[in-house]
Amino acid sequence: MAASPGQAQLLDSLALFSQERPRFIVKLDTRGSFISNSNVRLMGVKVGLEHAGRFQYGLGYTFLASPVEQPRTVNDQAAVPVRLHLDYVTPYVEYAFYQRGHWEVRIPVQLGFGGGSLVYEDDQGRKNKLKSAVLFLYEPSMTVQYRFLRYFGISAGWGFRLVLSNARLDEQLSAPIYIFGLKVFFGEVWTDLHR
Question: Which of 74, 88, 106, 131 has the highest CB neighbour number within 10 Å of its CB?
């Protein structure tokens, strides 16, 4: 099966960018999404390498930062608050396919491997797992960034989180994701301070 001209051009571009000397990057990652009927925030950190300011890859860690809690019957007792916990490791790649002036458009794609659980406290205040599951996630998205004042950028994006699990957690985990953020270009700040 032959690659289309667009695919061949993308692969050629990535091969060309990957020949450039990489620079180490660390970034905080925050994204909004939905779980069942709740608006939630996912937080994380990513470390990786970036080539030519266009092609990134690395590894991250993401966790559910918002409380998602529902009353549930546990051990034939009255309903108790049960909280959802999620965390996962995220290998990722990111490609800036458009850069003009102050504007940039990127396609970040990340996979996730981790776990989820439903946790409650018993009468003695001890945490117990009602259910747990192994999770596999796929999160493609697109972000648009506008850079201003040399050191700052604002960005917005959208995408989708697809979750596969080996057990049901009684929550709808697959959902749209949205991204809004302020970016500070610490590399340029560091370079300018040490000239």
Answer: 88
For the chain, what is the domain count? 1
Residue 12 in this model has a pLDDT that exceeds 80: no
Helix (H) or strand (E) holding 111: strand 103-121
Q: What are phi and psi of 51, to 5 degrees?
A: -110, 125
Hey, what are 135's tokens?
């999770």
Does the pLDDT of residue 101 top 90, yes or no? yes
Give pTM, 2 decimals. 0.84
Query: For residue 87, what pLDDT is reported?
Result: 97
Residue range of the domain that includes 34:
22-193
Sort residue 190 into left (φ over 0), alpha (ψ -120 to 50) or beta.
Answer: alpha
What is d(CA 92, CA 66) in angstroms, rounded to the nearest whole number? 23
Domain membership of residue 17 (yes or no) is no
Cα within 13 Å of Cα(74), Cβ side:
19
Contact call for residues 158 and 181 (beta carbons, < 8 A)? no
Closest CA to 160 of 182, 177, 179: 177
